[in-house]
Structures are given as C-alpha cells and as structure tokens.
Amino acid sequence: MGLKEKLHGIKEDFKGKKMAPAFNALHTFLYTPNETTHNGSHIRAVDDLKRTMNTVIMALVPVLIWGIFNAGYQHYAAVDAANGVIREASLFGNFFTWDNFTMGAITVLPLVIVSYAVGLAVEFVFAVIKGHEVEEGYLVTGMLVPLIVPVDIPLWMLAVAVIFGVVIGKEVFGGTGMNILNPALTIRAFLFFAYPTWMSGDKVWVHGAKEAVGTPDAISGETILGSYAQNSSVVYDFTDKFFGFIPGSVGETSTFLILLGGLFLMFTKIASWRIILSAIVGAAAMGLIFNGVVDAGWITESSKFYGLMSTPYWEHLIIGGIAFGIVYMATDPVSGAQTNTGKYWYGFLIGFISIMIRVFNPAYPEGVFLAILLMNVFAPTIDHYVVQANVKKRMKRLKLKTA
Amino acid sequence: MALLSKKDRGLIMDPLADNNPITIQVLGICSALAITAQLKASIVMAVSVLFVLSVGNVVISLMRNIIPSKIRIIVQLVVVAALVIIVDQVLKAFAYELSKTLSVFVGLIITNCIIMGRFEAFALGNGPYRSFLDGIGNAAGYGAILIIVGFSRELLGSGTLLGFKVLGDPIEKTGLYAIGYENNGFMLLSPMALIVVGIIIWVQRSRNKTLIEEN
User: Which stretches are annotated as coiled coil (chain B) (predicted)?
Assistant: First the structure.
C-alpha cells in the first residue's frame, strides 16, 4: 500500500470529526483527493483553485527575491549616502551581493513567515469551528501582504492586521470566494489607518532609518512619491525607477519584474488582460490630464500639487505601487468585476482614481490601495449595469423581430 | 417576592439582550458611530438618552388619549425637543467641555430613531408606569452598546479610559522585533465603530441562533 492510499485511509478515519478539515487541508495541499464529482456532467480541468493560487505565487517569487535584495541594498545605500558616498546602482556590482541578501532576508523573511503563520492559523480555526474545508484563499494573500508593507513594520502589528484582514475582510462574508474586498488590501488599509507613523513618511521605507533618527548615523528613506509630494528633487533616474533600485514597500519597486509577472499571469489566463490594460490606460489618462493642467499654466510651482502634477504621465506608472497594485491586486478574480465590459470600466477607474488620490491627497502619497478597495466595492454595481444593458439590448432585438 | 412582575421585567431585560435597539433593530446607529471615540462621551450620551426616553415615554403615555392621531408626530417632537433642550442646557452649564465634544449630537437625540420608535410603538398604547420601564429598558440597551463600543475604542485607540492612562507608552524602538504598545489610530475613526458594532452583532447572533433571519 503506497503512501497515497494510506493517507486516504487516514482521511476516512478523520471523517466527521472536528479535525477533519485541518487534516484535509494538509492532505489536499500535496495530493489530489480521490473523490470525483458526484452527479451531473461537469467539465473537468486541471486549473483548480490551488493551481490558480500557485501560479500567482510563482509570478510573485521573482518580486519577493528582488524585494529581499533591495531591502539590503537600500539599507547600505542609505548608510553610504549618509556618509557622503554616492552609490551608482549596478546589478552584479553592488546589488546581488551576500551582504544585501542576508540583510534583506532577516528583514523580509520574518514578514513572510508571520503573514503565513497567522493567516493560515485564522483560516484553520474558522474551518474547524464552522466545519468546512480549509480554503486556499490565503495562499496568495499571505504572499502579497509582506510585499506591500514597509520593511520595518513591527511583526506584532502585521499579525494584528492579518487577523483583522482575514476575519473582517473575508471570513465574515463567508470565506474564500465570498469576500467583497481584497483581503491583502484590507490588511494594508488597516495598518495604514491604525499605525500611520509606521506606514508612511520618510523614515519607514529603508531598514534602520527610523532607528537612526537623531543620531549621527541618521539616514534618509524617502520614497520618490514622498519627494515629489514635497516638491523636492529626486536623485533616481529612469533605470533606477524601472528596474527597482528605489526605496518603497518590499515588493513594489521593480516595475520590470512586475511587468514580467503580469505577462506570465496574462499568458496563463489567471489575470485578466482587460483589467491590466484598462488600468494602465486610466492611470495614463489621469496623468495626461494633470500634465495638461501644468502645461496650460493653471497652477504654478508654488502650488503644493505641482511636484506630482508635473510628473510625466508615464513616470506615474513606474513609481510607487501602482504597477504592483494593477497586476496583482486589481486582477483578483473574486473582488473584481466579472463581466468583460465591466472589467474595462473597473480597470480604467482604478488607474484613474489611483493617480487622482496620489496627486491630490498629500497625506496618502500612494492611492492605489484605496482606489482598488473603492472599486472592489463598486465592482458588483458595474457588473449589474453591464448585465442590464445587455438585457435591454436583447429585449430590443426581440421586439424588432416580433414586431 | 420579585420587585417587578415577569412581564414588567421583560420590558427592561429584553432590550438589553435579544431585542437590543442597536444590534437587533439597528436603530440609533449614527450616534453610536459618532460619539463613541471616548468612553466619557458615550456614558454621557447614554445617560442623556436614558433621561429623554424614560421621561418622554411617561409624558407621551400620559397624553396618549388626548393626542389627535393626525398630529401625534408633531406632539412627540415637541416633547422630545423640550427634553433634549433641558439636557443640552444642563450639559452646557455643568460639563461645558464635554458638551463641546458631543456638539451637535446632543441636539440630534431628537432624531434618534429609538426615541420616536418607542413613542410610536409603546408609549402611545401603554400606561405611564410600563412606558417608563420600557423607556429605561430601551435606553439601557442603547447605552450598553454605546458603552461597550466607547470602552473598546478609547482603550485601544487612545490607551486611556475616562481620560486616565491605562495602556503603556508608544514604542520607541523600531524594527521588526519591536515589542511594545502602539495606539491603534483606526479605532478613533468612525468606520471602526461600525466594525465593533458589527462584531457585537456577530457574537450575539452566533450565541442565539433564533436571531438569524431566514432568507
């Protein structure tokens, strides 16, 4: 008797007991269950929930690795800058180094571990209490969460936020597949409003920056968006911004890798290209409008919006978290729009509103997560009107035919 | 010998639990969200509503046979407005700072749905003594939720209770392994009050399955 049969045997023993969901979760994580569809004819495909989730995680791994190296790189670069040494970023010269990796690993991996441990614990508890199977919904969320927080967020805050996000963002609505809001963004929103001093400002984005405030070793950790919002100049050039040698939340910095991940997700048909494309168009449209306002001379350099408004529209796409948000968050198949026409609107408005919040609200220098949460709430409304429009169109056609 | 008959006790006890005005009837939510950032404000609000609702119920109940039904809403409003003005003046005289915190929400007791609801549903059809008990019960049910929400919001949001420091100072050290307490700023924002009320409703319904509506 092979291991597989043995496990199925144990499963029979657990049947009907409280611990059954917990065992089944671990079991089906590694093996396909021996159960088949019970009645009716169904289309069987291999892309079940678990595979979908794992594909997204695969797309996230390069971003995570980059995030680990970048966390170390930014720390040492900021220390250098404080000592008056200007660093020229070079991929193999001073980026992929063991120093960076170890420094990044001790700051980023704990975030990943805490996110998964706490989130899956909550899922297990709910599965055992409610007696349903553990759902895989947290696999992606658990990976997204460490990528959208600053490196220096205290672990207990992350744990509190994960509990809040999973319970209030997902479990109260009925678990995986029933949530209105994207759980990862709910977690970020909670952190942002609960502990704003740890989630924004110029001291949280680089490891060690907050600790060193006021000491002779003080280092700066300003993000590009933060600098623009204060109308100050930015030292990073296009390559830095596009490839991600910049400070920011752990996984959002490298637009290049996010783009590759996005292409992979679109190719595997996990993410909707309609949402991604229209979100980019929406963001560019809003950026162009702001650039037009600046060109027309309606606002002057003394305006506090000048810095972000005069940022070229294409640059908005490669700085801040907008690329990460569009590719990995807006395309969430549960909380996003479901109809094809709806997806265009949903994506467009996400891009449009993101840039609007980014420019107009200096207190929230990054508006992507708020824009996506807002559109999550409106997604069912968009779908409703798309469906109604279709119904109306077909009714008209029917009338024409019968008349 | 019981102080109250079984029926009368129900008037007070029901709104505290299974017929709570906020968590079951979902009335009076706006003030529960707006003024519960501090425990003190919640308590004062609860006491004010207790006064307005119990006295108002008695007054309406005494007049129930002479109020023409066509203008009963206006009469009720006059009664409730008079009582609210008394509360407002008392607060301004003896607790000026607090009345500034509560600001417009004292005046808005007039529009608190619980009050008009009890006048309409109970005081117009019952005697003064029972109306009084009903007023006490419903206001206590409202106040209990307000105080629970106010307690958790002030404790977790500001680290204080009634203005006294309870929880530790914010963490100074930083970094991943920073252990310490930091006030949760989200608790001070109104959306969190809605979530706290939601959690109370959730707990209450999972303890008592009969409260869950069929759909």
Answer: none
Residues near A289 by beta carbon (within 8 Å), at least 6 away in sequence:
none
CA distance B49 to B67: 23
Q: Which helix (H) or strand (E) segment is A211 a member of?
A: none
Contacts of A152 in chain B (CB under 8 A): 174-176
Closest chain A residue to B188, measured at CA? A194
Name the residue in chain A with its Cα closest to that of B203: A172
Residue of B nearest to A154 (CA): B176
Q: How many whole angstroms separate alpha carbon B85 and alpha carbon B91? A: 10
Q: Which residues of B touch A217 (CB under 8 A)?
A: none
d(CA A212, CA A77): 14
Report whether A305 contacts A151 (CB < 8 A).
no
Nearest to B47 by CA among B94, B117, B8: B94
Q: For residue range A130-180, what is the model confidence (pLDDT) as tens digits? A: 777 777 778 888 999 999 988 888 888 899 999 999 998 888 887 777 888
Which residues from B are below 8 Å from A168, CB to CB?
Answer: 195
ipTM of the complex: 0.82
Q: For chain A, what's the residue count?
A: 403
- pLDDT tens, position by position, B97-110: 888 877 777 887 88
Expressed in percent and rounded to 5, the helix, strand and coil fractions of chain A are 65, 0, 35
Determine whether the interchain pair A157/B171 forms a contact, defined as Cβ–Cβ distance below 8 Å: no
| End-to-end CA, chain A | 70
Rounded to an integer, what distance in angstroms lies between the CA atom of residue A57 and that of residue A10? Answer: 29
> CA B158 to CA B142: how far, in whole Å?
23
- The Cα–Cα gap between B20 and A381 comes to 32
User: Cβ of B182 and A198 within 8 Å?
Assistant: yes
Q: What is the Cα–Cα distance from B146 to B140, expressed in whole angstroms?
A: 9
Q: What own/partner pairs with CB < 8 Å and gap ≥ 24 does A213-221 have?
A: A217/A79, A217/A82, A218/A82, A219/A78, A219/A79, A219/A81, A219/A82, A220/A78, A220/A81, A220/A82, A221/A74, A221/A78, A221/A247
Q: Rounded distance, CA A86 to CA A74, Å?
A: 12
User: Which candidate in A171, A188, A193, A198 is best for mutational testing of the B interface (most B CBs within 10 A)?
Assistant: A193
B78-131 pLDDT, tens digit each: 999 999 999 889 888 888 888 887 777 788 788 788 888 888 888 888 888 889
CA angle A374–A263–A73, rounded 5-degree value = 80
Element counts in chain A: helices (H) and strands (E): 17, 0
Burial level of B165, CB count in 10 A (0-12/13-18/19+)? exposed
* Distance in angstroms (rounded) separating the CA atoms of residues B1 and A84: 86
Return the residue of B nearest to A203 by Cα: B174
Q: What is the dihedral of CA A318, A323, A325, A326, to 10 degrees?
A: 140
Instruction: Give domain limits for chain A.
Output: 8-32+49-227, 271-403
Q: Residue B160: left if φ>0, alpha if ψ -120 to 50, beta else—which one? A: beta
